[in-house]
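My convention is simple: the sequence line spells out the residues, with the fold written below as integer tokens. I include a record here:
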Amino acid sequence: VKELMGHGTNVVARMLLPHGPVGQVAAVSKEWNFVVLELDHDFVAQYDEAVKKWPVEPCVEVTIRRGQGGRGAFVTKSRLSHVDSAQRVGIADLLPGWSQSPVQDGDQAVF
């Protein structure tokens, strides 16, 4: 981990976390530009392991996609700002300039 200290936490997250679907959108706040994600059990377990290995919470950027099990149409890009492992939920800020269409409940979050 010490060798990685000079790299951004997004790089570290990519090394420590699995790629693929991580959950789905449970709620959208258009006013505050964030989503609440229901996170998959496997992702939360590996996220918790990454937090134990890294002294700073990893910066996890996920894409939001619609349909086809996380391989559907690109909707936007977001960044996890908080993960509640016990509840298996995450708050993800929607990143400006990435939106291709409005986020909807049920859209898939993919890392």
